[in-house]
Design goal:
mainly alpha; 2 helices; about 85% helix; elongated
């Protein structure tokens, strides 16, 4: 798989995870499952960001 494709997929996943976290946080005070979902989505977005940074470093 080409690096540009991988970066695009990770970027899209990070965007989706951030959107999911934001939406779930709206209901986190009322529903424990929404709080848990928001946390996992934030972790996913962070992992994507870290992977993208690592891949960028290796390309330099």
């Amino acid at each position: 798989m080409q690096m540009a494709s991988m970066m695009a997929m990770l970027s899209a996943m990070m965007t989706q995870a951030e959107a999911c976290a934001a939406e779930c946080m709206k209901y986190a005070d009322m529903h424990e499952d929404c709080r848990m979902c928001a946390e996992v989505c934030r972790q996913c977005a962070m992992a994507c960001s870290e992977m993208m940074a690592s891949m960028s470093d290796s390309m330099a």
